[in-house]
């Protein structure tokens, strides 16, 4: 909107040059059932063509704006990590009957993911982070 303070930000260095976006970062207060809730960060990213993406963060109030901007780029790698865990390591194949069993299953999956990551690094495979 007209009242939104937009800042041009270099979010990352991509293979085709810097990834630049217009970003607005503000503190807002959530509302639940008409009652005021906790304060959150509202991060708005304006994409080419004017489309807006909205993100909410419960990061501390003293969080640096640069750190919040970096967090915008972490969504895709995190989702990719979960997809790989499901596809290759059975992250979603559990039939546990206890909370401890579920935690053990996730621990083994994450250990396997760490092992594979270290192999990739050892053999210099390109990581898509």
Automatic annotation (TrEMBL):
Recorded superkingdom: Bacteria
InterPro entries the UniProt entry points to: IS701-like, RNaseH-like_sf
Name of the protein described by the UniProt record: Transposase IS4-like domain-containing protein
Species this protein is from: Candidatus Hakubella thermalkaliphila
């Amino acid at each position: 909107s007209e009242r939104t303070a937009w800042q041009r930000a270099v979010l990352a260095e991509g293979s085709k040059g810097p990834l630049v976006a217009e970003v607005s970062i503000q503190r807002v207060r959530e509302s639940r059932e008409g009652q005021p809730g906790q304060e959150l960060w509202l991060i708005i990213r304006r994409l080419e063509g004017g489309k807006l993406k909205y993100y909410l963060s419960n990061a501390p109030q003293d969080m640096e704006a640069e750190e919040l901007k970096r967090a915008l780029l972490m969504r895709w790698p995190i989702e990719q990590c979960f997809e790989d865990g499901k596809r290759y390591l059975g992250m979603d194949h559990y039939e546990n009957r206890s909370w401890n069993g579920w935690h053990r299953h996730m621990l083994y999956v994450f250990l396997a993911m760490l092992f594979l990551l270290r192999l990739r690094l050892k053999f210099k495979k390109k990581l898509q982070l």
